[in-house]
């Protein structure tokens, strides 16, 4: 039939999709063979839950460590206990050292005695956070040192009295 039709009409018909050209038919067959992953019942095509998809996304993006650290801060009450969490809050986490600021030096000392148990629980519950040790500090005291060029010495002594 293509022998009877002039070349321009044949090209027109092929472009309109009315008569497939031999090259297009070969491409379609090859494409159909290459699209095995789009088959409806092929292995690996089962739907995934939202939690699984989000876990894969956070792992691939490298967010696991940061999210584990955020979880540690948000769940500090569950880790340390309600009474302890009222008097001690995590303030920093750097190089595997979690710094917890306490309301008083007495709370800091008590928590230092419980350090091994707290570190074990943190490592078990939040392994991606990277906590290796915990430092408990008391309340901040005012500092009289102002700036990098402060002069060493006794400083003012009659301020309070």
What is the CATH topology classification name of the domain at 64-137? GMP Synthetase, Chain A, domain 3
The protein's oligomeric status is single chain
CATH architecture of the domain at 64-137: 2-Layer Sandwich
State the order of secondary-structure elements, H for helix, E for strand.
Answer: HHHHHHEEHHE
- Strand order across the biggest sheet? 1-2-3
Please tally the β strands and state the result. 3
Biggest sheet statistics = 3 strands, mixed
Note poorly predicted spans.
none
Which value, in Å, is the CA radius of gyration?
34 Å
- Helical coverage, percent range: 40-55%
Strand content: 5-15%
Our measurement of the CA-to-CA distance between the termini, rounded to an integer number of angstroms, reads 113 Å
Q: Count every helix, treating DSSP H or I runs of 4 or more residues as helices.
A: 8
Rounded mean pLDDT is 78
CATH 4th-level superfamily of the domain at 64-137: Fe-S cluster assembly (FSCA)
- What's the overall geometry? elongated
What would your notes on this structure say?
With 161 residues, the protein is mainly alpha-helical. Among the domains are: 7-38, no CATH class; 64-137, GMP Synthetase, Chain A, domain 3 (2-Layer Sandwich), CATH 3.30.300.130. It has helices at 7-16, 22-34, 50-61, 64-74, 76-80, 82-87, 105-113, 115-125; strands spanning 88-94, 97-102, 133-137. It has a 3-stranded mixed sheet. The mean pLDDT is 78.
Features:
GMP Synthetase, Chain A, domain 3; 3-stranded mixed sheet; mainly alpha; 48% helix; 8 helices; 161 residues
């Amino acid at each position: 039939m293509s022998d009877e039709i002039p070349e321009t009409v044949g090209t027109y018909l092929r472009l309109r999709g009315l008569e497939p050209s031999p090259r297009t038919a070969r491409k379609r067959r090859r494409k159909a063979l290459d699209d095995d992953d789009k088959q409806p019942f092929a292995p690996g095509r089962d739907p995934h839950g939202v939690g699984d998809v989000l876990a894969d996304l956070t792992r691939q993006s490298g967010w696991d460590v940061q999210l584990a650290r955020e979880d540690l801060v948000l769940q500090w009450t569950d880790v340390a206990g309600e009474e302890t969490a009222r008097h001690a809050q995590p303030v920093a986490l750097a190089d595997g050292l979690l710094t917890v600021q306490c309301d008083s030096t007495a709370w800091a000392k008590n928590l230092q005695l419980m350090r091994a148990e707290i570190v074990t629980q943190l490592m078990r519950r939040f392994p991606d956070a990277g906590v290796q040790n915990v430092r408990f500090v008391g309340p901040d005291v005012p500092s009289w040192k102002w700036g990098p060029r402060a002069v060493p010495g006794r400083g003012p002594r009659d301020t309070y009295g």
